[in-house]
Amino acid sequence: MAKIKLVRFEIAAILEDSRKLIDFLRQCGTTELSTVPATDGLLSYQTDSLCESFERKSEKAAKCAEALEKYCSIKKSFLSSFNDCTEIELQEYRSVCDSADELMQRCDEITHLCEKISFENGEIARQQTLIDYYKPWEKLDIPMSCVRTQTSGVFIGYFKEELSKNEIIARLAASAPEIDGVAVDLVSSDKSQTCVVVFCFHEDSAAVESALRENGFIKPDNPAKTLPKAAIEKSEKTIEECKENISKFSLEIASFASDYNRIRLLSEYYSNQAEKYRTVSKAATSERAICLLGYVPERDSEQLKFEIERRFTAQMEISEPDYENDDVPVLLENRSFAAGVESISNMYSPPSNDDVDPNPVMSFFYYALFGLMLSDAGYGLLMVIVALVAKFKLKFSGEKAKTVSFILGCGISTMFWGALFGGWFGDLIPTICTHFLGMEKGPDLAIWFTPVENSMKLLMFSFAFGLAHLYAGLAIRFYMLAKKKQWLAAFCDVVPVSIFVAGFAAFGSSLLVEVSPTVKGIGTKLLLVGAILIVLTCGRSSKNIIGKLGGGLYGLYNTATGYLGDILSYSRLLALGLVTGVIANVVNMLAAMFSNVLLFILVFLAGHTVNIAVNLIGTYVHTSRLQYVEFFSKFYEGGGRSFTPFKLNLKHFKIKEDTIND
To answer: Can you tell me the distance from the alpha carbon of 407 to that of 99, in angstroms, rounded to the nearest whole number?
Structure first.
């Protein structure tokens, strides 16, 4: 389907051309390099230390760019926060590469200034801690380090509770009744502590100190040698000096504002250099030559061979991949409609080399099932608007562009089903007509039918759509087996099951709704024929009749129970579709309870925001589950490895020039 054939290549070139050759391959961006097996006479590059050096430089440049954003107040638009990608010329990137050492010197200066700012901020924090420490002692009129005067002992400290002066004196008297000359000066008091100064005669110092400790008295750990007020003033002055230094250093950093984009690009340059040399380590060299192995799309192989042999002293050989022994990657290429769901299949597992690409078929069913579950045209319209703004304003590329296509496809499908079922933000339009325009009944907007009023009809349609989904999976399995010329397996694994499921669907529908006797009769016959064929074919690998019969009966049991569960799984289409619509209607009803238009709008916005957020998540999860369990189980193996081209990977920049000039 949309799998691009890859071929294996081997390049041998003179060692002098190795650097230019590797750069050329990266600029082409069409090859994936593999590790060259170790053989006599060939050595591999040891690039670990070099890669670590590049990564450190990349990290330093990235931090410098963040510092410039912070101190230069670089303004970005609202949309740029979603797509921080700047288009540049190839020459601009090469200019940064050539001046990398000079730019790193500027990064060193910025880093040094940032370290100074960090030091000053640390000093501010330390001084603020001292201020907070000395603040309760601000009214103290003697140094905190004072322990005695000529006539008395001095104890400066605090209790870890709120106490009054009389309570302290009473506690000291209770602990040391023999002491009479004690004076207590209350400095400050709050719920967490009480700061005091206690005076006593020299001869009573030991007894007073013992009594204080007995009552939980604590001396300061870092007493000021000056008055606390003076210590606070000194710290405040230091803080002001630190702030002035920070302002000066910030201005110096801001002087590098013109280098902002170049430094960001420098970070990506070194990141790509690290990636480049990690890839280089896969190559092997001799004294005079370098050998490279890898994979390239077949459609690009001949042109690549021509260019390499024209530009370099090299020889390139192309061969078919060894799918049995080598880890051959898989390259998918889909148009935007199918490319949008590649992340869904890759989340499960990329296709193996034996698989077909499931995305072209899965995309149709995924979008249809998603829209059927969300089923509100208003919600779909919002998704479409968001996707179109992202598509034409932000101009995403790569995986982000695929995500935009995914949202757009889901939004269009949701609008389609919502219009069929008449859901535009629930029953918003009928609600406005009845509550604000004085109409007895709002218009019926459903093109097909209203799910809330015809839930059984929606359930039967869900089962029918689910059957189509299952049959698509079986058809792909038949195609895969037939492509390998396994005609017997294609018939035995698909045809009996298809007949059985068709009969089961026709017969089972008669249990839920009224069907004609003819349909029921045909269903019964198909069910019986399918069951017989399954019994006859499922045990074909056994060598004796008993094993064949047992295998057939076991296959019939698995088919009946498995497909019954699969079909019933599609009832979630009904469940989620009804939940979205009912909650939306309830939100509109609650909003309409307020006669005030402003309150109606506020409740409407809040309620529908929550509804769309919750149901978007639920719809995404359940739609993915239907692909993984019901669809993929019919044909898909997975376990493949995606093709990872060796190319320039820029996160925040996009090079306008896509071609490589001589």
So the answer is: 41
The string of pLDDT tens digits covering residues 547-592 is: 888 888 888 888 889 888 899 899 989 999 999 999 999 999 999 8
- What is the tens place of the pLDDT at every residue in 37-93? 877 677 787 888 999 999 999 999 999 999 998 888 776 665 555 666 777 888 888
Q: Which residue has the tokens 């082409």?
A: 28
Integer Cα distance of 230 and 316 in angstroms: 81
Q: What backbone phi and psi angles, to 5 degrees, belong to 647?
A: -155, 175
Residue whose C-alpha is closest to residue 38's, from 201, 282, 233: 282
Q: How far apart are CA 386 and CA 407, in angstroms?
A: 8
- Rounded to a whole number of angstroms, the CA Rg of the chain reads 39
Spatial distance between the Cα atoms of 150 and 130, rounded to a whole number of angstroms: 30
Q: Which residue has the higher pLDDT, 221 or 617?
A: 617
* DSSP codes joined into one string, 521-580: HHHHHHHHHHHHHHHHHHTTT-SSHHHHHHHHHHHHHHHHHHHHHHHHHTHHHHHHHHHH
* CA end-to-end span of the chain: 35
The secondary structure of residue 5, as a DSSP letter, is P
Biggest CA–CA distance in the chain, Å, is: 121
User: How many angstroms from the chain centroid is the CA of residue 90?
Assistant: 30
154 membership: H or E segment, kind and range:
strand 152-159
Contacts of 73 by beta carbon, 8 Å cutoff, 6+ apart? none
The band of 619, judged by pLDDT with boundaries at 50, 70 and 90, is: very high
The two tokens of residue 299 are 């459609």
pTM higher than the cut 0.90: no
Going by pLDDT thresholds of 50, 70 and 90, the confidence category of residue 661 is very low
What does the alpha-carbon distance between residue 270 and residue 648 come to, in Å, rounded to a whole number?
Answer: 11
DSSP state letter for 486: -
Burial string for 97-110 (b: 16+ CB within 10 Å, else e) reads eeebeebbebbeeb
Tell me: the pLDDT tens digits for 229-260? 999 999 999 999 999 999 999 999 999 999 99
Is 422 in contact with 453 (CB distance < 8 Å)?
Answer: no
The count of other CB atoms within 10 Å of the CB of residue 409 is: 26
And the tokens for 629? 């369990």
What is the rounded CA–CA span in Å between residue 535 and residue 487? 19
Burial 26-51 (b: 16+ CB within 10 A, else e): bbbebbbbbebeeeeeeeebebeebb
Say what the pLDDT of residue 662 is: 36
Residues whose CB falls within 8 Å of the CB of residue 198, separated by 6 or more in sequence, listed in order: 154, 155, 168, 172, 182, 183, 184, 185, 208, 212
How far is CA 415 from each of CA 3, 139, 389, 450, 452, rounded to the nearest angstrom? 31, 73, 17, 15, 18
- Residues 6 or more apart whose CB falls under 8 angstroms from that of 396 comprise 83, 85, 390, 403, 404
Q: Are 107 and 60 in contact (CB under 8 A)?
A: yes
> What's the Cα-to-Cα distance from 393 to each of 77, 388, 409, rounded to whole Å?
12, 8, 18
DSSP string of 94-149? HHHHHTHHHHHHHHHHHHHHHHHHHHHHHHHHHHHHHHHHHGGGTT--S-TT--B-
What's the average model confidence in pLDDT over 264-285? 91
Smallest Cα–Cα separation from 269: which of 471, 454, 26, 453? 26
Q: Return the DSSP state at 330.
A: B
Euclidean distance between CA atoms 91 and 134, whole angstroms: 60
Reading phi first (left if > 0) and then psi (alpha if -120 to 50, else beta), residue 426 is in left
Assess contact for 429 and 585: CB atoms under 8 A: no
